[in-house]
User: Which sequence fits this backbone?
């Protein structure tokens, strides 16, 4: 895989538009989703995605296949740009995963049932509100593991921290998020009684 990634980058550096289009097509959804999970706003996520791809294009020559996968490299570029965006706006939307999330039963399936739609909307709002309380470090680790599906070693490499620290942050983030969601759900149930 690394050899094909390196060839694709090499073709792109030689001016092959099809190679660049292949990179954008391969990573566009993932980059947009990453931006959206951090910002919570579609338009802002689109702007971030464009900025990220501009930065990737400008820095393609710095990619080194012997240093790791292209996916890790491009996600590291995205992460750095998103952090810069956060520092500029001081709004850092939170995202994560836990057993409590599974209890909320948020799914991607299209539901025709209006009651289910309202329940999902409320669950998403609770998740969003709960995530606002996590620290950026915890949110980032949980996001990369639970929503992006990266391995611990990939996250450690991307964040330039030990793998044990990654595991600790993910665990603390999940616990904190579950605690916050449980408390908010209990408050909502009390109000609806």
Assistant:
């Amino acid at each position: 895989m690394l050899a094909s990634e390196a060839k694709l980058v090499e073709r792109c550096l030689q001016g092959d538009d099809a190679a660049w289009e292949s990179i954008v097509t391969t990573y566009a959804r993932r980059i947009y989703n990453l931006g959206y999970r951090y910002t919570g706003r579609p338009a802002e996520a689109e702007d971030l995605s464009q900025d990220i791809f501009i930065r990737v294009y400008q820095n393609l020559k710095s990619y080194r296949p012997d240093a790791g996968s292209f996916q890790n490299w491009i996600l590291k570029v995205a992460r750095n740009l998103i952090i810069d965006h956060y520092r500029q706006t001081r709004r850092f939307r939170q995202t994560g995963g836990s057993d409590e999330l599974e209890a909320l039963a948020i799914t991607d399936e299209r539901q025709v049932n209006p009651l289910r739609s309202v329940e999902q909307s409320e669950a998403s709002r609770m998740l969003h509100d709960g995530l606002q309380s996590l620290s950026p470090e915890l949110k980032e680790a949980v996001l990369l593991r639970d929503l992006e599906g990266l391995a611990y070693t990939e996250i450690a490499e991307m964040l330039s921290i030990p793998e044990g620290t990654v595991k600790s942050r993910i665990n603390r983030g999940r616990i904190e998020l579950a605690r916050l969601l449980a408390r908010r759900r209990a408050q909502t149930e009390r109000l609806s009684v």
Summary: Residues 99-192 form a domain with the Arc Repressor Mutant, subunit A fold (CATH 1.10.10.10). The two ends are 56 Å apart (CA to CA).
